[in-house]
């Protein structure tokens, strides 16, 4: 069942600027934040055009180009600064139940001096935890603290998944020389695929956070800027870790190819040795088995056993020869 109303409202909060917050409804949203140091946060679900008129597009007072960016289908992390606010698009790994580890969903923010409007496409566990913290009385005091806190929560979720991915790569490196290749190949492909997908979205997030920290606004304190840069630095480390996982997966794949080639060479060597051993024996038995006159030993009752012993001795001799030249 959807957790938003027909206009896409997921939740809305009014912050008093002193660490307190309370939920608000549409009436208070339309009236706007009261005078003082506080601000409002309106969290919306992205809706399609079939829903018709919405507050965001018709009543929010936000520039149509920014509304279009907030409702864009698929965008990479970025930040754009304007005279009256800042647009920030971030991605977060979804740790909600039944979600895949490579699912990175976007959340877009329009930050003004007295209001923050965010738009999601799918729910994010980091946002849910952030709202739980607000309900427990741990509310941000400024818009800068709001963005910094939520950014750190998004980064923390990345840490969990990327650490698990690195551990999977460690395990694959240990198994590459012993496990069955048919069982190992899908795991290597999956690790490499997830690393590539995450890297594609995580890398631009650093630039977006650093760019937002340059916003020249009173509500962005030096402490908030430092936290945003810290989040950007962690994202950089994650991107480097994903590069490492991707490269390690490529090395593991190369080792698997070499191991498969070695197995094929070994099999071909055995087949060649069997051919070398049995080709002379087949020639001898073929000659001795011809149904013509003059075959040596054809009238001797012990002829069969003589040929058998001769073939056995020749086979043993060929095996010894192949061992001597290290074919076997």
Automatic annotation (TrEMBL):
What membrane topology does the UniProt entry give? Multi-pass membrane protein
Gene3D superfamilies for the chain: CorA soluble domain-like, Magnesium transport protein CorA, transmembrane region
GO CC terms in record: plasma membrane
Gene Ontology molecular function, alphabetical: cobalt ion binding; cobalt ion transmembrane transporter activity; magnesium ion binding; magnesium ion transmembrane transporter activity
Q: Where in the cell is it found?
A: Cell membrane
Pfam family name, one: CorA
**Domain of life of the source:** Bacteria
User: What family, per the record?
Assistant: Belongs to the CorA metal ion transporter (MIT) (TC 1.A.35) family.
**What's this protein's name?**
Zinc transport protein ZntB
What species is given as this protein's source?
Starkeya nomas
């Amino acid at each position: 069942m959807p957790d938003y109303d027909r206009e896409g409202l997921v939740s809305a909060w009014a912050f008093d600027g002193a660490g307190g917050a309370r939920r608000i409804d549409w009436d208070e949203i339309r009236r706007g934040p009261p005078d003082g140091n506080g601000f409002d946060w309106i969290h919306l679900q992205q809706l399609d055009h079939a829903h018709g008129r919405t507050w965001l597009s018709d009543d929010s007072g936000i520039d149509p180009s920014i509304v279009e960016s907030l409702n864009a289908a698929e965008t990479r992390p970025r930040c754009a600064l304007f005279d009256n606010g800042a647009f920030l698009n971030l991605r977060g790994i979804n740790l909600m139940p039944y979600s895949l580890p490579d699912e990175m969903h976007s959340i877009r923010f329009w930050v003004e001096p007295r209001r923050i409007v965010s738009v999601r496409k799918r729910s994010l566990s980091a946002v849910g935890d952030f709202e739980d913290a607000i309900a427990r009385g741990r509310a941000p005091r400024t818009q800068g603290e709001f963005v910094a806190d939520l950014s750190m929560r998004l980064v923390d979720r990345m840490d969990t998944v990327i650490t698990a991915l690195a551990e999977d790569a460690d395990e694959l490196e240990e198994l590459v020389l012993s496990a069955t290749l048919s069982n190992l190949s899908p795991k290597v492909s999956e690790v490499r695929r997830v690393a590539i997908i995450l890297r594609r979205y995580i890398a631009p997030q650093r630039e977006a956070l650093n760019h937002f920290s340059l916003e020249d606004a009173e509500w962005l304190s030096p402490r908030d800027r430092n936290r945003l840069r810290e989040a950007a630095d962690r994202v950089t480390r994650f991107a480097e870790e994903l590069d490492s996982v991707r490269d390690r997966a490529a090395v593991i794949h190369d080792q698997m190819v070499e191991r498969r080639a070695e197995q094929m060479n070994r099999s071909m060597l055995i087949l060649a040795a069997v051919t070398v051993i049995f080709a002379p024996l087949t020639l001898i038995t073929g000659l001795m088995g011809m149904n013509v006159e003059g075959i040596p030993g054809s009238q001797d009752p012990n002829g069969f056993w003589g040929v058998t012993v001769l073939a056995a001795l020749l086979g043993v001799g060929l095996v010894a020869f192949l061992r001597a030249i290290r074919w076997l």
